[in-house]
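Subject: sequence -> structure tokens, single chain

Hey, anyone have a minute? Need the predicted structure for the following. Not urgent.
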Amino acid sequence: MIRALIVDDEQLARAELQALLEATGEFELLASCANGFDAIKAINEHQPDVLFLDVEMPVINGFQLLSMVDAERMPQVVFVTAYDEFALKAFEEKTLDYLLKPVEAERLALTLTKLKHTLQRGQVPSYTTPELQRIPCCQGRRVKLVDIEQVESVFTDISGVHLRTAEAQLCTDLTLKVLEQRTPLLRCHKQYLINLAFVDEIQLLEGGTASILTRSGHTVPVSRRYLRQLKERLSF
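Reply:
Had a minute. Here:
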């Protein structure tokens, strides 16, 4: 069975596609998500084989969502869209395939054939994704999108990944690796990223480590492994 995830902000579209997938007898539907934020959680949790992804969604669209997925967890992607111009861009982004709404069973069968061949070959998906401009964060029942320029530092602990701004500390479902690779944030420790624009002071410590004091007064550790690149970036 092919492990699948549906992401579409339209409930009817999700239900119709789910019925078509189930009718093939080839898919195990892991989850059906109404927005990109829930999709990130589901991808991290379930690690599906294929993502049936709506292109045009509010807040986080399909292309932006792909920028938020760790490359090691990236599933095969089939864009589902009502707009031909987006379908053409899907090919430019080198996704596996695309389906035009309303999805037809015959066209889905062609996608299934292509998907089976791709999975059998063990082909690893690799998509061109833009740098992240905003990071989705949990805030109660709301999702707050934080501009990269507002982020002082990011750290991970047993409870998850946390963003610090001058005003708040927020949680995100994006991994530290994604944030390091797709934002200007610099790795300074295995558990920390730092925004160099917010560095106020650096204290060099014994053993080749250091400590950063941010403009808002937070302390961020610098391990020996990453101190050299920090010095190079700040020219000291």
